[in-house]
Design goal:
192 residues; mainly alpha; two-stranded parallel ribbon; 25% helix; extended
Length: 192
């Protein structure tokens, strides 16, 4: 029997990098510097304009009711019309119509049918119509209407009939006054 070879196998020589790269890099250009700091006047101008609040200033009772409304929204069932599963034209728009048939199982509240709309599912009256942040939305068309808003409790909704040019003017005016706009075209960095 031949004796096993105890010497280590011969290692292959390391591969050397090619002398010239396949593609030459352009001359190393200096990295672009950061944008110059804004002028002190611009900083002072930004500080003068009040920031629009992210949440409305509400009494503790209303804040509690907003939390209650959030819980109720989670428990509220989807109100599905009778035969919505059968016809796409009934189920797609989620519009509610009360079942009126004499033998309607849904009208008679059979347990295996969908729930029907009842007054007990409403949210608390004090916070009804408020946004999740607690603002009362107010429809705005002109600068004069913006001036009458309370920035701590009300938020502007710019009307759909307002064109883009005047809408941008209204948004800038609202930022200057510290009023939150619920449907802006342009969002500033603080609003994101």
């Amino acid at each position: 029997m031949p004796e096993p070879d105890t010497t280590a196998p011969a290692e292959s020589p390391p591969k050397e990098a090619p002398a010239t790269p396949k593609r030459r890099r352009a001359a190393a250009s200096p990295k672009p510097e950061a944008a110059p700091a804004p002028a002190p006047a611009a900083e002072a101008e930004k500080e003068e304009a009040p920031r629009s609040p992210r949440r409305a200033e509400l009494p503790s009772e209303l804040r509690t009711l907003l939390g209650t409304r959030r819980l109720l929204d989670g428990k509220r069932p989807l109100f599905v019309r009778q035969a919505a599963h059968r016809y796409a034209r009934i189920g797609r728009d989620e519009a509610w119509r009360r079942p009126r048939g004499l033998q309607s199982k849904q009208r008679r509240h059979y347990g295996y049918r969908a729930q029907i709309v009842r007054v007990g599912y409403r949210s608390p009256a004090a916070v009804r119509g408020l946004t999740p942040a607690g603002f009362r939305p107010v429809l705005v068309r002109t600068k004069d209407e913006l001036d009458g808003l309370d920035a701590r409790r009300e938020a502007a909704v710019i009307a759909r009939t307002v064109g883009t040019r005047r809408r941008l003017v209204l948004e800038e005016e609202a930022r200057r006054l510290g009023i939150r706009v619920l449907n802006p075209i342009v969002r500033s960095e603080e609003e994101r």
